[in-house]
Specification:
The complex is a heterotetramer, with 2 copies of chain A (359 residues) and 2 copies of chain B (368 residues). With 359 residues, chain A is α/β, with parallel strands linked by helices. Chain A has 13 helices and 14 strands. In chain A, 36% of the residues lie in helices and 18% in strands. The two termini of chain A are 31 Å apart. Helices cover 44% and strands 9% of the residues of chain B. Classes of the chains: A alpha/beta (359), B alpha/beta (368). Bound molecules: thiamine diphosphate (2 copies) and magnesium ion (2 copies). One magnesium ion binds at residues 161-163, 191, 193-194 of chain C. One thiamine diphosphate sits between chains C (91, 131-133, 160-164, 189, 191, 193-195, 256, 260) and A (62, 91, 93, 115, 119).
Chain lengths: 359, 368, 368, 359
């Protein structure tokens, strides 16, 4: 996908329409199934749509029922679909993943929520050893159409373990898709596709931007394609590649660069694995310069794969070394020093300048 | 030997180690049932024997024998209905065979061929056996939850070993069975060893059945060498499960008469005397004695069975050894429903490599 | 309300909800002990109140109050010896404070400053509170194993919530305590809720204490709103543990009177009436009544305590708010004993960035 | 470390000295604490040395006592040091990691064995959330000097889950070291250093080469440096970078290349994280060409980080794109088709040729 399908977007990142306008929009368009929503509301809309359209879909996790999830992603679903399809589980993440594998093996479509990505670690055994392998192990006899959702990333001043970005861990696991939306539109469309997908998907939601912008979405059950990058902005001088919440800073950086006369292309990877290198490579072949931006610790991250692939596959086009703007190889600091860890818009602009200054 | 193999109060048993009936057999058990169970047990023992022999001669990779525990797998298999789902571990060959998994498929799995997991018919929705200890129990709970949510009045049987009871995920799954009243029967094959670690080093509880108390489900200990006891416990647990009365944890006390697998050497860590003693409790022999004493099993019948079983197993071995190789790219073709672009590219790479190696070596695909 | 807060047979209690003694107090409990416990409880309640207020005014991040559960933390703290080790979870402010963790350190942790975990003195080997539910229980088992292996006759106290009992790692740790006879006392703060999930959705067992049966250790249920009951249960469990008699699981039945944390809104999922009813079982009030009825607590004493506690907590708040910022590179300096070459390079990067941002913004380190 | 310390090596990869000679050597030299050992015996020797020299060291895991471990890495330790220091645990990997954190926090030095890396997944929560963070979280008050050992990698025709190479997962976790020996000498020296290290180390032992070669080792308690690559072979035309069992094929490839007149440098990364890029970069600056060889699935692996760093830091020296020779993005096939997955010597040679043919 080379241009964002979401031409229906009504607001730009960083500009939040006034609440009253949003409410009016939402009401005016409800009849046509058009909603003006934040990303977390878009997740909710997609879950609602999936529950409505497919009786095999169930939603499960901790505090997702009456509480609507700690981020309210499942708000109201229990009321509409009942406790048998919107299921509060005991406090056991390995179990949540494991029963999802079991349910999915029998043709159900469990959509499990892990409350924060910091608590996803005990699902690794099930995801790596089973979810990603059931189809292959049985040569297609059984399969595992499950989704494991988790809010991820830092910047909300949460306690320890509430700000992790460990997407690289899942990206390296064969048989899994790892999908990360970065706008309401993409949250809606990608989550629907993830649920409809016949294979397991780890769906990571950048919680820092859960409520940052609103977009107008037609709740038509249309998914957006997985396994493809979204080019959010066309440009000829430089390629900026990112995913998740850092797309926000990346777009801001593109704007700042524009003011400096630099025309940056911005690619949202969206599906981290399998990686759509075609889009990225074609862009870099055009621009010759690339900055990859990731929030996760620097080493052995998703950005490393992208940087390596660019250099391996487009070396002759590269007019400067790929720059990576990343977190540090440290745990996320407790909130007081969290911002020291986080990559900033300025870091991206600076890295872009380094690639540009490189003759 | 740490857990008593003798029948004792609180441990369900019908036919004791000497082949004597110590309790009236359940109504639905007749001679035909006993003979059928016996046949299954003898058959799987023969399969095990062959599999180990194949391994010793380099025609099989690591194989986990269920020698001495045939009554567990058989009792379960006899108790399950077709629409129930089995989530086995690697010593459930007997149950799998009863559910129609072909003997050569069992050999294929351990011979290193994923196609052995292409179960058909009754077993079509069963899980393949689980290698990561304990992880299968939450699959089973999920399947049970799916049944419950769909209003299907069937149940899941999920098995694991005594060592597995130390794994937290087994507890998590059983706890869910309790709190969601799931139609699931968990059978612990307590063969007293987890490789070299005796049952007594896994937990301080007197029995494994009493772990049911921590999750609010029924717990039953049975003589795992008595196929009738296993059958009866599983059958009634399944009946309860199917009509919404919740799950059961069944501890079947038995003994691993073989090495852990063909890769193991149990003489390193346990006494021959212990193993010899455990042979006195052989589940196969006792059933034979019992039927014989009933006048329902003659040497001629035994002879005929041995011949038939040998033929069947030999045929399975032949089929196994004759299995045509997989397509080279099979290991890529099933990772996703449709091969992703990266995998398609990697398949090109694989095929080119094989062509190169074939060209260089005239057939042999490649060394390392 | 799912688990009864009333005292009942099988649940240890000394002072009931009305402040009446229903059982002779243990010998070692005198008026001074009661007054001290009372002071601790009042102090931690005041700290909680201030912390929540700080959060509401933007001077504190997410904070988990222990409102209503002060007797648990205090009973544990009173029962532990200095050389014991505490492995707390996030509602153990009272125990931590008794072990000498400074009140401002508690605030620092939730204010987002790792230095709050720099415990000294008695608490120097204690763990910081654990955020990932349940994971701390195996740390505690490991510490207990270290004590046992070194022949140190002390014990570990490890705490978790009712929701945590669903986690497999909690079971694994307790099972180890059983089989290795470790000197560990596990206290479950059964405050009846895990965020919005009631205790009844975690497990089917009638009590949480009976989970001890699955791991072969002692299990005790106590009135968690009765500081004497908590103390007595922990003290005797510790005594048993220290002399090699193994571990205990103590379920302290209480109630979470506050929201889960300041980020939670409990009115979304539970009735005000339930919370109001639970206030009748307030652990602080009952002890006050009891002491008052004994003639050992006057309004003047209460007044003096409130003043003292307010001063102490205010001082802690002041100290907390005045904490000088950490060095910018502190979050890199303690990842390893010595900064690795990559981290040293990343520190260079960090410092350059800060300099750049300072230059650009005149002080404010950097926005995003 | 630029040259292998192990000049004391007495045998070359691929050439196994006759057993009788080895036995004779071993006996002749026992007095001087000199042993001629395989890699797994070297591990045993290091464990024995550590248990002997430091009363705080304990060894724990499944079947490591009387059975001596399923690969016999702990053979005889129980007999010498008793069941209190060589401890069979219940079958629970998360527990093994968790109690190791607890023990280490009190100054003990637990060396835990996970029977196969395929069963390490349930330790991820403890390793990521606690082992790698305890020091940082307490600002140095508590620390976690533990070692988590696991045999890893394929090629031994083992059942499913017995052939995994998930080192990248741990490499991405802040606060952990990930160390991989590839010879008896390095197994001995690196394991000793890992045990003595004040921080947690994931120590992965390439089981395919556990018994491939013997080397002469002086059991003197001397560790080898962590955080450094070992240059096993100097060369000027091309740099081959690998670790673990693939070092075997990499050295064979270097020989084959030599016959073709190509002089390859061979670097054993050894400590995967933190990564010693200096050695690798200097080599590539010299040779201008590089092949990175890893057994793990191709995408998001350790090789991606190395390839990315080379291109980012030595772009101007690169005379051809870095080549990666890797496993595929699939689960390891069951034994019958395992060899299809495994990178081969020929693959390495071919990749080398590609970099060389690139003018
Ligand atoms: C999670 C996990 N850890 C370790 C192993 C290695 N392993 C294979 S079988 C086994 C012992 C299992 O014992 P038990 O549960 O009693 O079953 P049994 O083999 O005795 O039938 C171990 C440790 C594994 N397969 N999975
Ligand atoms: C492993 C893990 N999963 C989820 C969470 C998010 N979470 C924080 S507290 C909590 C509920 C804990 O309930 P309980 O154990 O009863 O303790 P309480 O907070 O009631 O004292 C949850 C789900 C977490 N911190 N850790
Ligand atoms: Mg066993
Ligand atoms: Mg609670």
């Amino acid at each position: 996908m080379t241009v964002e399908s979401a031409t229906r977007s009504v607001s730009r990142p960083g500009k939040k329409p006034s609440d009253s306008k949003a409410t009016k929009d939402a009401e005016a368009t409800k009849r046509d199934n058009v909603h003006v929503v934040t990303m977390v509301e878009a997740v909710n809309l997609a879950l609602r749509r999936a529950l409505n359209d497919d009786p095999d879909v169930v939603v499960l996790g901790e505090d997702i029922g009456i509480n609507g999830g700690v981020f309210r992603a499942t708000l109201g679903l229990r009321e509409t679909f009942g406790y048998k399809r919107v299921i509060d589980t005991p406090l056991a993440e390995a179990l949540i993943a494991g029963i999802s594998v079991g349910m999915a093996s029998q043709g159900m479509r469990p959509v499990a929520e892990i409350q924060f990505m910091g608590f996803i670690n005990s699902t690794v055994e099930q995801m790596l050893s089973h979810a990603g392998r059931l189809r292959n192990r049985t040569r297609g006899r059984l399969s595992c159409p499950m989704v494991l959702r988790a809010p991820f990333g830092g910047g909300i001043h949460a306690p320890e373990h509430h700000s992790e970005s460990t997407e690289a861990m899942f990206a390296h696991m064969p048989g899994l898709r790892v999908v990360i939306p970065s706008s309401p539109t993409r949250a809606y469309g990608l989550l629907l596709s993830a649920i409809q997908d016949p294979d397991p998907v780890v769906f990571l939601e950048p919680k820092r931007i859960y409520r940052m912008v609103r977009q107008q979405i037609t709740d038509d059950g249309q998914g957006l394609p997985l396994d493809t990058c979204f080019t959010l902005r066309q440009g000829k001088d430089l390629t900026l590649v990112s995913w998740g919440a850092m797309i926000h800073e990346t777009l801001l950086a593109a704007k700042e660069l524009e003011q400096q006369g630099v025309d940056a292309e911005v690619i949202d990877v969206a599906t981290i694995s399998p990686l759509d290198m075609d889009t990225i490579r074609r862009s870099v072949e055009k621009t010759g310069r690339c900055v990859v931006i990731q929030e996760a610790p620097r080493s052995f991250g998703v950005g490393s794969e992208i940087s390596a692939r660019i250099a391996e596959e487009a070396l002759l086009y590269l007019r400067a070394p790929v720059q990576r703007v990343t977190g540090y190889d440290t745990p996320m600091p407790y909130p007081q020093n969290e911002s020291l860890y986080m990559p900033s818009t300025r870091d991206i602009v600076e890295a872009a300048r380094v690639t540009l200054d490189n003759a | 030997m740490f857990d008593d193999l003798d029948q004792a109060p609180g441990k369900l048993g019908f036919i004791d180690a000497r082949g004597k009936s110590v309790r009236t057999l359940p109504d639905d058990i007749d001679v035909a049932w006993l003979q059928k169970s016996y046949q299954h047990m003898v058959r799987i023992r023969q399969l095990d024997k062959k599999a180990v022999a194949l391994q010793r001669t380099g025609q099989m990779h690591t194989y986990p024998s269920c020698l001495g525990q045939e009554a567990i797998g058989t009792g379960i298999g006899m108790a399950m209905q077709n629409e129930d789902v089995l989530v086995p571990y690697y010593r459930d060959q007997a149950t799998q065979a009863i559910r129609g998994v072909r003997l050569e498929q069992i050999l294929q799995v351990w011979g290193g061929d994923e196609r052995g997991n292409l179960f058909e018919g009754v077993a079509a929705r069963d899980f393949p056996n689980s290698v990561p200890i304990g992880t299968q129990m939450s699959h089973a709970a999920g399947i049970a939850a799916a049944m419950k949510s769909r209003g299907i009045r069937q149940a899941v049987v999920a098995n694991c070993g005594d060592g597995a009871t130390s794994r937290g995920d087994v507890y998590e799954a059983l706890n869910l069975v309790g709190v969601w009243q799931l139609p699931m029967v968990a059978v612990v094959n307590n063969n007293q060893w987890a490789i070299s670690v005796p049952r007594s080093l896994q937990t301080a509880t007197r029995t494994l059945a009493e772990k049911a108390l921590a999750v609010g489900i029924e717990g039953v200990q049975v003589d795992g060498n008595d196929v009738v006891a296993v059958y009866q416990a599983v059958r009634s647990a399944l009946a309860r499960a199917r009509c919404g009365k919740g799950g059961t944890l069944i501890e079947a006390v038995s003994y691993r008469l073989s090495d852990h697998t063909t890769a193991d050497d149990a003489t390193r860590y346990r006494e021959a005397s212990e193993v010899n003693k455990a042979w006195d409790f052989d589940p196969v022999k006792r059933l034979q004695t019992y039927m014989h004493d009933l006048g329902q099993w003659t040497p001629a019948q035994e002879q005929a069975l041995l011949v038939a079983v040998k033929q069947e197993v030999d045929a399975a071995v032949t089929a196994y050894l004759k299995t045509p190789p997989q397509a080279a790219d099979d290991f890529m073709a099933y990772v996703f429903a449709n091969m992703t672009p990266p995998l398609l590219a990697q398949r090109e790479h694989l095929l080119a490599r094989l062509e190169r190696d074939n060209a260089a070596q005239g057939g042999k695909h490649h060394d390392s």
